[in-house]
Amino acid sequence: MATLKDNINTIKGIGEKRAQAFARLGVFTLYDLLCFFPRRYEDRSVIVPIAEAVDGYAVCILAVVADDPRLSRIRRGMELVKFRVFDASGAADITYFNQSWMKNNIHRGEEYIFYGKIDRKGRHCSMTNPVFEKAGAQSGSTGRILPIYRLCRGLTQKNVLQSVRIGLDSCAGQLSEPIPKEIRDRLTLPDAQFAYENIHFPSGFPALDQARKKLVFEELFLLACAMQYRKADRLEKAGPVFQKQDVERFYASLPFSPTNAQQRAVSEALQDLASGKAMNRLLQGDVGSGKTLCAAALSWVCAQNGYMAAFMAPTEILAEQHCHTLQKLLAPFGMRIGKLTGSLTAKEKRQIRSELEAREIDLLVGTHALLSENISYPGLGLVITDEQHRFGVQQRAALEGKNENAHVLVMSATPIPRTLALIIYGDLDVSVLDELPPGRQTVGTFAVDSRYRERLNRFILKQAENGHQVFVVCPVIEDSEEETGLSLKSAESYTEELRAALPALKIACVHGKMKQKEKDAVMAAFARGEIAVLVSTTVIEVGVDVPNATLMIVENAERFGLAQLHQLRGRVGRGAAQSYCVLVSDAQNEEAKTRLSVLCKTNDGFQIAEEDLRLRGPGDFFGARQHGLPEMHVADLGADIILLKTAKQEADALFEADPQLSLPSHAALRLRLKQMLQAGSMTLN
Ligand code: ADP
Ligand code: MG
């Protein structure tokens, strides 16, 4: 008998080639196949009288062919088959392009179902290239709600449809039911078999809604439970006890006073550090809210207690900058700061390793290089990761793993919509920096198209003449070599263009493919004010602090997520001078325009995050695959907010009543969570 774990090539009709195609879609087992949900549906269930069919909508009509189909060639390579059909209400003309065989497939006097978009001109009604099927033949492509799947080369809709049918028939009975029955009953959620059957082959729209609701709930509920499970786990974990220190001493050394929000966040963390349990806290604060200072204060406390802290940044440039900033803040207290990035020479790395062994470093700042297997951290007491959304849950875990019981502070500048944060950070305690340091001003933001190029260039010149500096960001597509290559060229060629347009200015370019030394040199020169205009790919996206920069220009702004644009905008407006952000885009579509207009209207990161989630969905919001969160199969975190809340409430209540999930009615849930968490990847299957 087939089981859910079987490879899909056990299905009749799936050979090696098709199995490979399915693999590209992430489908390996029968279970994957059942979880490969349709992307959308076509309503081919209702047959509409021709006279009532509405212009522009796809419908099914049931009609008799009135004449013999005529084949004509209107020009080379363009063949038409035309005929007229009618039902009791009216007539329609049907045309097939370049499908000359249709002439012999359609017969005068016979009745067919045609499914296609209606085109109405006055009283004249027509359809082009409709799907057709002989009336009563029911091959399955009309007369029902038809699922439409995501495809790739080597697969057709029909392949997927038939495979899913076989999969459901052989294994649907084996699907487990992780949601306790009591909850399912209360929320009137159908059982697994019904849900999987009807998400693929809905018997009607109410059934589809039921199925979807159940699967969305299940997905969100499992995620919420998994986070609870992690939290329960971590509450057991002891952490080094840090004696409370007088942070005022640290504050007193600063050239400014910390904001109330910063002080609050630091003291919340200090409570954790003194509690005997390992801290696991998220510090969330909009761009420029001053998270680095909090990190510095906690590293200071850590060092005062004789422990070492590690600080992980997502890019070399950021690590560099943090290192510099923290050095300035902490060296006066005699703290020894080390730096570890991928670009260090083998000798430099050896040096760092031996200093670590000898406990000669109080704070180690670095990139992913901190995670290298051959490095250990004796005396590690605190782990800080910056810009959390760039690290997966796994990477976080890897660094924490360097010392099981180290305290953990995660800093994120991406304000996550509250509803979502509730679940995603369900395993973390959260501090929020909801206040910017005084004297910040709103960055004037404008969306323009490239007709403004000349005015924009004059504006650049004006900023430079006033002694200020300018960032220009060109898009780069993450994770794709080819496309990276393309847009790198665009950053470089745009630099040339600008140099030609503004010969008086010193213009430099920095991008991810440059050697570290070169990047560093350019960034450092920019920070020193020796370069007026810095053209870059998004390597400067996070964190870089150049208060003298007053203009941020983003090219092809439509290619960026709102949250990302907001981050970029945060690079300016850090000094006293009025600052601007110009989003250049020639995108014509309404959606792109709406998105950019959100940024022009508000500077509030939370509001932008909510909008971003609503407009683009969570996948894009977090950036491809980097969020380290499970991919959602059905749930749309933007649209399913009510279910999200319900799922969270139910999960909380369940863990409240049965923290260990030891009740028999929770056994299936416990098993599923164990599998999820063991897989480490936190994927839901
Ligand atoms: P982010 O939260 O985006 O990481 P940073 O830590 O880079 O923000 O801080 C942004 C800027 O604000 C830095 O130049 C920092 O020195 C400055 N800053 C931080 N806290 C304060 C404060 N309380 N008062 C004035 N300036 C501050
Ligand atoms: Mg920062």
Task: Describe the 3D structure.
- The two termini are 21 Å apart.
- The protein has a 7-stranded parallel β-sheet with strand order 12-13-11-14-15-10-16, with helices on both faces.
- Mean pLDDT is 85; it is low at 477-487, 618-630 and 681-685.
- Strand 12, helix 12 (346-357) and strand 13 form a beta-alpha-beta unit.
- It is globular.
- The protein is α/β, with parallel strands linked by helices and 685 residues long.
- Helices cover 39% and strands 18% of the residues.
- It has 23 helices and 22 strands.
- It binds adenosine-5'-diphosphate (ADP) and magnesium ion.
- Magnesium ion binds next to helix 10.
What topology does this entry show?
Layout: H1 16-24, H2 30-34, E1 40-43, E2 58-65, E3 70-75, E4 78-86, E5 91-97, H3 102-105, E6 111-121, E7 124-128, E8 131-134, E9 145-148, H4 157-171, H5 181-186, H6 192-200, H7 205-235, H8 247-252, H9 260-274, E10 280-285, H10 291-304, E11 308-312, H11 316-330, E12 337-340, H12 346-357, E13 363-366, E14 380-385, H13 393-400, E15 407-412, H14 418-424, E16 429-433, E17 444-448, H15 453-465, E18 469-473, H16 481-501, E19 507-510, H17 516-527, E20 533-536, E21 549-554, H18 562-569, E22 580-584, H19 590-601, H20 605-616, H21 618-622, H22 641-657, H23 667-678
Residues 256, 258-259, 262, 285, 287-293, 413, 437, 543, 545, 574 line the site of adenosine-5'-diphosphate.
